[in-house]
Amino acid sequence: MLDFPEDNTMDINTKIGSKVRFSFPENGTTYDKETARKYLKINETYTIKNVYIGGWRTDIILEEFPTIEFNSVQFENI
C-alpha cells in the first residue's frame, strides 16, 4: 500500500456523521471544482451523509447538500 505523508485529504473510510472541512478547492477535476465553488465555502465544516468509494475516486454526499456529490480530495478530516 502506498503511503503519502503529505496527503492531508479526507480518509476514504471516514464514518457517516463525521465532520470534514472543505480545505482543498483546487483538487479534483474541473467539474469537481466548479460544483464545489457553487455550493461550498472554503474552510467551512460539513457532515458526511454517505461515501461512495470507486476504482479511481471517492465521492461523498454531505448532509447539508443531500443531492450533490463532491470529490473527497477536496476535504480533510477534523
Quick recap of the structure?
With 78 residues, the protein is mainly β.
Q: What summary fits the major beta sheet?
A: 5 strands, antiparallel
User: Mean pLDDT, nearest integer?
Assistant: 93
Through-space gap between termini: 24 Å
Shape: globular
Instruction: Assess the beta-strand content as a share of residues.
Output: 35-45%
Number of strands: 5
Number of helices: 1
Q: How do the helices and strands follow one another from N- to C-terminus?
A: EHEEEE
In what order do the strands lie side by side in the largest sheet? 4-3-2-1-5
Helical residue percent band: 10-25%
Radius of gyration: 12 Å
Broad structural category: mainly beta
Question: Which residue ranges are poorly predicted, with pLDDT under 50 across at least 5 consecutive positions?
Answer: none
Molecular structure report:
By secondary structure, the protein is mainly beta. It contains 1 helix and 5 strands. It has one helix spanning 30-39, and strands spanning 19-22, 45-53, 58-62, 65-71, 75-77. A 5-stranded antiparallel β-sheet has the order 4-3-2-1-5. A hairpin with a 4-residue loop joins strand 2 (45-53) and strand 3. The relative contact order is 0.31.
Describe the SSE topology.
Blueprint (H helix, E strand, L loop, with lengths): L18 E4 L7 H10 L5 E9 L4 E5 L2 E7 L3 E3 L1
Antiparallel strand pairs: 1-2, 1-5, 2-3, 3-4
